[in-house]
Amino acid sequence: MSRTIPIRAPEGERQHTRATCPYCGTGCGVIIETRHGQIVDVQGDPDHPANFGRLCTKGSTLHLTAAPAVTQAARLLQPALRTQRDQAPQATTWSTALDHVAQELARIVRTHGPDAIGFYGSGQLLTEDYYVLNKLAKGLVGTNNLDTNSRLCMSSAVAGYKATLGVDAPPACYDDFQHARTLFIVGANTAYAHPILFRRIEGARKANPDQKLIVADPRKTETAEMADLYLPLRPGTDVALFHGLLHIALAEGLIDMAYIEAHTEGFEALRATVADHPPARVADVCGVPEADLLQAARWMGAHTPTLSLYCQGLNQSSRGTDKNATLINFHLATGQIGKPGAGPFSLTGQPNAMGGREVGGMANLLSAHRDLANPAHREEVAALWGVADVPAQPGKTAVEMFEAAARGEIKALWIACTNPAQSLPDQATVRKALETAELVVVQEAFATTATVPYADVLLPATTWGEKDGTVTNSERRISRVRAAQAPSGLARHDWQIFRDVARRLEALMPERRATWRTGTTTLFPYETAEQVWNEHRDSTRGRDLDITGLSYALLEQQGPQQWPMPEGHAQGTARLYTDGRFPTPSGRARFANVPYEPVQDPCTAEFPISLNTGRLRDQWHGMSRTGTLGRLFGHVSEPCIDLHATDLQQRGLAEGDLVEVRSRRGSVIVPVHTSEAQRPGQAFMAMHWGQEVLGGTGPEGQARTGVNALTSPFFCPKSKQPELKHAAVQISPVQLPWRLLALVWLPAEQASRLREALKAQMTDFAYASCVPFGREPHAQGLVGVLFRGARTEAPSAEWLHAMEALLGLDTPDCLRLRDTARGQHRTVRRQALGEQQVLQGFLLGGDISSEVWLRPLLQEESPVDTFGRNLLMPGATPPVATASKGRQVCTCFNVTEPAIVETLGQCQGSPDERLSALQGQLRCGTNCGSCVPELKKLIKSHPARCDSTAPAA
Which residues form a coiled coil (predicted)? Predict the structure, then answer.
């Protein structure tokens, strides 16, 4: 597996570079194509063992996020420094910016001590980046206040593994999908969050017809739709569910007593706890039919082997560690671990959350899975680094760090490759922290995140396509990340930025230098990423994740490898604990005897709805990257909140009505969407909808900050991972009669800049949203921008004129309608496309009901020659017959739901035969496959006709 494969082509020199996708923890290999040094395409790597050439909608559009127009508009391209808080940061040199950061950090350490500094990193950093940051904080500055957004993602999985199996090591691998007879997916919408893994699950089920799929989730997600058995448990009741399943397994003789006696400890204490969870009680607590509990336990306990897959539904909880540990209990009790097709398999959320844990890049960890609380481990790390000691005081974790900064205890926050002003819970506290801190350093690739405006220093970092190093995926597989093009602007690699500040700090902190190992001139001698990785590798010798048999050269020659891979081994280890021995003092796995406890933010008469947050199929986190592409908004185009039809009826709501969603911490206003996936009394809102796309101003002038204005600061006391899967909320109608809707097509760079400019206009509304659109690459390279707002009365004529100018709708060729008395303001602009006229943009103010036909006309570039001034006509009925293509289902080929339903009417046979016919005719589901679960759902809801005369597929 060579680094690059040059190919000569008439269009110019092309080069192909193997790298890894920067999105979820699946760790898909990609092949990046560059032409004249610019990324132009990306394909799945057919030789990579994580994906074998497949990519999801996000991965397959990566090259579009590296386009020059996106880079120029969205990327942070040069350092910037703010000397006064009431001024914006001004462009500066790297030397000036790095000097300022080092001098301010040194000042704060001298004045307030090292624990007055907090470092907050990211699961998108490479392992090499993480390693240098960890050494900078704990080895040089002398604080353990280093945490990352992996705390929001995987820390409960870490704590659960350590509590039961001894170390943080998922014991299974992707190949186990093929060997399992029962798959148990809980707290994970794998079809959306890990779509390439779901493709492998689909393949395994097709190859093994007897394989059973059980899905436990409060929502009937796309993953649950595929299940043989769906368990709709109530939010936060997972521990009761797992105790109940083990109770049934005990009662029916489905446990493996020989395995328990030979390889575990603590079972008798757990048995007494489990005895208090009979099926009837668990059914009542969880809201799951008793018969389904019995069936699940029998399939998991006797229909062996069983593989459990889980993600944020278990992790993001105030009882996250207990949820993880009690599921592992079931596997230990039934001997379902260390065997092909069996085991508790935590699916990692971020591309390198695993790598960050490997180097100790969190507040409670040290390098190579060493524990900060262990004095011997601290001594080992101090010796490895050549320093006198590593501080023993536990560091503050993510939520604690920002709470401390809000109180004024932490004076400096250094934030790298993450967006806490969007992603952390309880946003009011987070923003107070960012405003209170004396120094906020933001090290970031994108200039458009909600955290950037709070920065005193901006440090531009490289990103996907420009970085070099390694990442580790969910199955412990280490892959290379390689640069395919030069850094954009003045961006530098994250590890280099940490190194350069560290070297400056060394000169400013002579008292620390005096304690180093004799002869040491710097703790940061690295000139390449490989040198950093080699030091990390050496720190793993003799540890559970020993990778002393690995090297960059071996990864180049043999491809990605799983740890452990000690020196002398020819390849990595696929499965752990095959011999029944565990890395605990006794060599035995430990049962976790923990009680079931309800959620900490209870629903009440005032806050009766349980709000769950999660992922969309085509978006990633705060959308700093995916949010630059209009086509990724084709499936879900705007922010909304999902409710069951019963909850809408009780509140007198209709589809699309605006509602205020209020928790005990804050509120947002969003449109409501009826969803069959929801149960009564529950709501869902995508985690991606932050202040970058959703905003407005509250009645007291406070800014509305997106979904995490609502979420809870409660966290698991063992893992410190916050509760993001449940918040008690109230939902009520909002009366905002004056509405505005604007859509325009623009060149990509102008569109990105317009979105940034429109953020300032969002504050003029009680509710506002601004997103891109565009279902497929536009023939003229244009990108759509949509702005929507609602308020109690019309803004001034001057404001509307300024808005028109901003949108480019102030030209003489625009059609206009003004009715000040009725608050109506309408502007339409057309342009020539070939011999026809199409809409270039429009603004509707007041009555926007004509959106139902104007918006499809613009988005689908339908001819409007026959409309004339009727384009200005208010009302939901078009003056000329129109037909919308409908909601997009397949992003790759822009296939809509109406087209699918129409084609299904002609497709006969079994569900698999109809799917095959549908794919053959429309191509949907034949590229990345992310839409296949929804296609199967549509097939199920539109059964084949019984008419024997119907044409064959």
Answer: none
